[in-house]
Design brief:
Blueprint: H1 10-18, E1 22-23, E2 25-31, E3 34-40, E4 43-47, E5 52-58, H2 62-70, E6 72-77, H3 83-88, E7 105-107, E8 113-115, E9 120-132, E10 135-147, E11 153-156, E12 159-162
Antiparallel strand pairs: 1-11, 2-3, 2-6, 4-5, 5-10, 6-9, 7-8, 9-10, 11-12
Bound molecules: flavin mononucleotide.
């Protein structure tokens, strides 16, 4: 759908973004219904002072409203040995099989589920939330963090990938 003479279509935008490698993270939280989470790439550092991440979640996903209500979340950046866990968290068919059965999970200081062995895990409190088009943009103030050895899991052009060191 063209939105103006100089505008690009949603498909053109998606296609160009598919060419950009992104670090893969599991975005997780806890609420009354239990632990929940999804595979994400739309996550990056927003500000260093204060330490803040921005995460972008499709508003039409059932977890989106739960996440905002939960108020806290964890971002677990995966290693290239954790692609199977990323696959488990990338579909809502997780209702039938609990994706938290895979991996070594425990609750962090905020109560959000934190994955052992993730290259970096950040626990965040939602400071601000914005609605923009299809997504919720959440600014998360970092409350706690953990690091582990390993290389980032990447995603590009529909495939999970490894970092190549020159
Ligand atoms: C590599 C990858 C990255 C993703 N990144 C995001 C993201 O940043 N934000 C988001 O809302 N959904 C993202 N998704 C989609 C969600 O993981 C997915 O919609 C969610 O797990 C629910 O599954 P469903 O779409 O089958 O209902 C991504 C999926 C994959 C495979």
């Amino acid at each position: 759908m063209k939105t103006g003479p100089a505008a690009i279509s949603v498909d053109e935008y998606k296609n160009a973004m598919r060419h950009v490698a992104s670090a893969v993270a599991l975005l997780t939280f806890r609420d009354q219904a239990g632990w929940a989470g999804l595979t994400t790439t739309a996550i990056c550092s927003a500000t260093t002072e204060p330490p803040t991440l921005v995460v972008c979640v499709r508003r039409d996903l059932p977890v989106a409203s739960r996440l905002r209500a939960a108020g806290v979340f964890a971002v677990n950046f995966l290693t290239d040995a954790q692609a199977d866990i990323a696959r488990r968290f990338s579909t809502s068919s997780q209702i039938e099989c609990n994706p938290f059965d895979t991996g070594d999970w425990s609750e962090g200081a905020t109560g959000a589920p934190v994955l052992a062995g993730a290259v970096s895990s950040f626990e965040c409190r939602i400071e601000r939330a914005f609605e923009h088009g299809s997504h919720d943009l959440l600014l998360g103030l970092v409350q706690d963090l953990k690091m582990a050895p390993g290389e980032n899991l990447l995603y590009r052009d529909g495939f999970f990938r490894r970092l190549l060191t020159e």
